């Protein structure tokens, strides 16, 4: 979740620029795909109030992974079915209010590795222009994220 600066929200069409109003104010979300060493591969910027499971299908089209490790927000039957069709192992815990609470394919050891993506976002949010979105245009904001990801790849 990225907070949008007050001057970045004066765009004529906020939906195209991926800035929407949430409880915490105007915001955007960055959905990231990374490799096993927590290096960013690709990302999608969405509006702040859009649920993560809606973006998951777009992320799966980009990815050619063998294993997907995600949090509970990505738990949806459509997502799990698409993962099964693409022969990708899903390491996603079931929601607490899920009807079927059995989760045989869940690997708790692999799920512990998910902290690497949290570390990736912590490194990315060291860049002030990513932490607080100053850009009105989605393309400009995406360019700043690509620049931040390139610094992470170079390990500066």
From TrEMBL:
The name this protein goes by in its record: Transposase IS4-like domain-containing protein
InterPro entries attached to this UniProt entry = Transposase_11
Q: Name one GO molecular function term.
A: DNA binding
GO BP: DNA transposition
Task: Record the organism.
Answer: Silvanigrella aquatica
Q: Which domain of life is it from?
A: Bacteria
Q: Which residues form the Transposase IS4-like domain?
A: 28-142
């Amino acid at each position: 979740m990225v907070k949008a600066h007050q001057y970045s929200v004066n765009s004529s069409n906020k939906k195209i620029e991926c800035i929407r109003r949430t409880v915490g104010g105007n915001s955007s979300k960055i959905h990231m795909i990374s490799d096993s060493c927590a290096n960013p591969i690709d990302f999608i910027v969405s509006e702040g109030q859009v649920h993560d499971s809606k973006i998951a299908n777009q992320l799966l089209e980009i990815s050619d992974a063998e294993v997907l490790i995600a949090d509970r927000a990505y738990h949806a039957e459509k997502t799990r079915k698409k993962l099964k069709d693409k022969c990708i192992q899903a390491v996603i815990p079931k929601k607490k209010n899920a009807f079927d609470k059995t989760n045989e394919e869940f690997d708790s050891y692999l799920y512990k590795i998910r902290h690497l993506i949290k570390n990736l976002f912590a490194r990315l949010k060291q860049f002030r222009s990513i932490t607080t979105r100053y850009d009105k245009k989605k393309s400009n904001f995406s360019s700043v994220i690509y620049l931040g990801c390139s610094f992470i790849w170079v390990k500066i």
